[in-house]
Amino acid sequence: MTDASDAEPDDDDVDLTLRHLTRCFPDELARALLPGARFRIEPVYQYTLDALRARRSALWMVFAPLAVDATPGAMPRVVHELRDALPARRFEELGVAMTVLADADARKRGLRAPIAALLPKELVMQSWVYNQGLEKGLEKGRRQSVALALAARGLKLTPARRAQLDAETRIEVLQTWLTRAVTAARAADIFAP
User: What tens digit of pLDDT does each residue of 147-171 get?
Assistant: First the structure.
């Protein structure tokens, strides 16, 4: 008889555990909060797509964008295999995770677009990665608009004020500054509290 602690967890157990840990504990806290837990780092970037498939787990296929032989042409097959093997919600979670890993690919092989093209557009747009990118784009756009409005009116930013503008990340503050930049008599006036 096998002791339950020696049994291999099934995909659902591993998936649930990984989702829970990644939501609850940043990597640097996991080791501190789980003393005695053993971590094994797999060099997935050295694996081939076939080696990942040989693991016979959809969870391993999430790492396909990091595989040594991953190409834009190979990604549709991987996505279709995942879609066929998983319930819709799990496929969506793993599909978005694949786009994140594709962006993290140090080889810069352009794998994100072919993966994202096979996922529902709403799914990609609802992901935290998309939303974070959207927020960063809005910040950058507002910053550029403030500088452009001031320049168009012949008002110059001091290096200190330019640094203040560049450091601001709150969209509501940048929007306030943009509104003021259109009518302010002096560039310094837009930064008033």
Answer: 999 999 999 999 999 999 999 989 8
Place of tokens 């302010």: 184
The ranges assigned to domains in the chain are: 7-41, 43-126, 131-191
Given a contact cutoff of 8 angstroms between Cβ atoms, the answer to whether 180 and 153 are in contact is: no
3-state helix/strand/coil string of the chain: CCCHHHCCCCHHHHHHHHHHHHHHCCHHHHHHHCCCCCCCCCCHHHCCHHHHHHCCCHHHHCCHHHCCCCCCCCHHHHHHHHHHHCCHHHHHHHHHHHHHHHHHCCCCCCCHHHHHCCCCHHHHHHCHHHHHHHHHHHHHHHHHHHHHHHHHCCCCCCHHHHHHHHHCCCHHHHHHHHHHHHHCCCHHHHHCC
pLDDT, tens only, 34-63: 666 666 667 888 899 999 999 988 888 989
